[in-house]
Structure formats: structure tokens, C-alpha cells
């Protein structure tokens, strides 16, 4: 798999449900970041988790990081229709540029 | 809240023409990036820029591409002779020197090459 590979590729849930997206990566990292992209729009930074952290919260977002498995998960609790977007994880390589995964397309149905 | 801006939001051009995509990074940021996203695909790194020179570039960033910081605020991406496959969203990003490399992205420019 490629660096920053998310799964599932698409996820459809009902409003109020929780959404979990996963990301796997290949090389060692300093941190991993999650971004959201609304259709046809720019990337919005959601949360950053450092390599020495295992879990981080921000509002309805919860991110975990397992460096032994080179994986991360993003949990959105009590989802809303406005959460409908694509979600990307990004890791930073030695050159400090991002490597993005293909993203998870989340649809939250009212 | 400071933000990265990009112009134009949409550029349509004929194959073979030159295009310049413009970005205004956040004012106190020192690192600048261009990424592109072909429709339905992942965001791909093109180039990073620091201290008035390219820090790193990907295989996509060939001789047809160039970047410039012509003044203290703008950061431009030029494609000398556009090809059909250059059609994509182009995102500019910037970050400050400190911190964990949190990059702030602009809204993107949609480039359509006909």
C-alpha cells in the first residue's frame, strides 16, 4: 500500500452515528495529520497527532495513532450532515512535504 | 483569522498556452508548497520553496513547471506549455518555521486545459 492509505474509500452513515476512518502508512513519521475536503474545495486541517502520542481529541474528533502498526484512525462522533466530505491523512516525509492518501469519502445522511 | 488565498479560482486555457497560478501565503510563513489534485485522485506534492529557492520537487514538477516569489507576498506556479493532463486542482500551502509542520492550504485553483 502507499504511504497514507485510508480505508474505507467510501463510508455512508446516518446522522448521529459515529464514523471511523483508518489510515496506514509505511515509513517512520514525526506526526500524522488529518484533513477534510468538501467537494471541490480546499483542504482544512483537522487535527495533528505526534508520533509519541497515542490518542488525541478535538471536539467531536478523536484520533488514535499506533506507530507499531503504522496506522491511525479518525473517529467522528455524533455525525452531522455537514460532516459530509472527504477525509485525508497526511504524513510528512524527510523533505517536510506531505504525502496524502486517496481519502475516505464520508456521506452523512439526514 | 489569516488564510492562504489563491487566484484565479478557475482558469481555462488552451493546450500549449502558459498559465500562472497565484497564491498569497499567510504573511509570517516561511515555507511554501504547491500540490495538485487530479479529479477523483489523491493530492500530490509538486514543490516546496524556502528562502527563495526550491527545497524539494516531485517527479511531476518537470521543466514545464516553475515557481517564483516575485515580491514579499505572492508565490506563483507557472506552467510553460500546458498539456491536457495538467487539468487539475492546484493547491498552495504555507507553514511557519515553528511547530509541527501544520500546513495551511488555500482554496485551490481549478485548471482546465482544453
Short summary:
Chain A is mainly β. Chain A contains no helices and 11 strands.
Describe it.
The complex is a heterodimer of chains A (110) and B (114). Chain A has strands spanning 5-7, 10-14, 19-24, 31-37, 43-50, 55-58, 61-66, 71-76, 85-92, 98-100, 104-109. Chain A has 110 residues and is mainly beta. In chain A, the strands form two sheets. In chain A, strands 2, 4, 5, 9, 10 and 11 form a six-stranded mixed β-sheet that branches. Chain A is globular and about 40 Å long. With 114 residues, chain B is an all-beta fold. Chain A binds chain B through residues 30-31, 33, 35, 40-45, 48, 50, 88, 92, 95-103, and chain B through 31, 33, 35, 41-45, 48, 55-56, 58, 89, 91, 93, 100-108, 110.
Write the layout of secondary structure elements.
The complex is a heterodimer of chains A (110) and B (114).
Chain A (H helix, E strand, L loop, with lengths): L4 E3 L2 E5 L4 E6 L6 E7 L5 E8 L4 E4 L2 E6 L4 E6 L8 E8 L5 E3 L3 E6 L1
Parallel strand pairs in A: 2-11
Antiparallel strand pairs in A: 1-3, 3-8, 4-5, 4-9, 6-7, 7-8, 9-10, 9-11
Chain B lengths: L4 E3 L2 E4 L5 E6 L6 E7 L5 E8 L2 E5 L7 E4 L6 E5 L8 E8 L8 E2 L3 E5 L1
Parallel strand pairs in B: 2-11
Antiparallel strand pairs in B: 1-3, 3-8, 4-5, 4-9, 5-6, 7-8, 9-10, 9-11
Distance between the termini of chain B: 37 Å
Please, what is the average pLDDT of chain A? 88
What structural class is derived from the secondary structure elements of chain A? Answer: mainly beta
Helical amount of chain A: under 10%
Taking pLDDT < 50 over at least 5 consecutive residues as the criterion, the unreliable ranges of chain B are: none
The largest interface is: A-B, 23 and 25 residues
Q: How many angstroms separate the termini of chain A?
A: 34 Å
H-E string of chain B: EEEEEEEEEEE
Global morphology of chain B: globular
**Beta-strand content bin of chain A:** over 45%
Low-confidence stretches of chain A: none
Mean pLDDT of chain B: 92
Query: How many strands, what sense, and barrel or not for the largest sheet of chain B?
Result: 7 strands, mixed
Radius of gyration of chain A, whole Å: 13 Å
The number of E-state strands of chain A comes to 11
Amino acid at each position: 500500500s502507499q504511504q497514507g492509505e485510508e480505508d474505507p474509500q467510501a463510508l455512508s452513515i446516518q446522522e448521529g452515528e459515529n464514523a471511523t476512518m483508518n489510515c496506514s502508512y509505511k515509513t517512520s513519521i514525526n506526526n500524522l495529520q488529518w484533513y477534510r475536503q468538501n467537494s471541490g474545495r480546499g483542504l482544512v486541517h483537522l487535527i495533528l497527532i505526534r508520533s509519541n502520542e497515542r490518542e488525541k481529541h478535538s471536539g467531536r474528533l478523536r484520533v488514535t495513532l499506533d506507530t507499531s502498526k503504522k496506522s491511525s484512525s479518525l473517529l467522528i462522533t455524533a455525525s452531522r450532515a455537514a460532516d459530509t466530505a472527504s477525509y485525508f491523512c497526511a504524513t510528512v516525509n524527510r523533505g517536510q512535504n506531505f504525502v496524502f492518501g486517496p481519502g475516505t469519502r464520508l456521506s452523512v445522511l439526514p | 483569522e489569516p488564510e492562504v488565498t489563491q487566484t484565479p479560482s478557475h482558469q481555462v486555457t488552451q493546450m500549449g498556452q502558459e498559465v500562472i497560478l497565484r497564491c498569497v501565503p499567510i504573511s509570517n510563513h516561511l515555507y511554501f508548497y504547491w500540490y495538485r489534485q487530479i479529479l477523483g485522485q489523491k493530492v500530490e506534492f509538486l514543490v516546496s520553496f524556502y528562502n527563495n529557492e526550491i527545497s524539494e520537487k516531485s517527479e511531476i514538477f518537470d521543466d514545464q513547471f516553475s515557481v517564483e516569489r516575485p515580491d514579499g507576498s505572492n508565490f506563483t506556479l507557472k506552467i510553460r506549455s500546458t498539456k491536457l493532463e495538467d487539468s487539475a486542482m492546484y493547491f498552495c500551502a504555507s507553514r511557519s518555521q515553528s511547530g509541527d509542520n501544520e500546513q495551511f492550504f488555500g482554496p485551490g485553483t481549478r485548471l482546465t486545459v482544453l
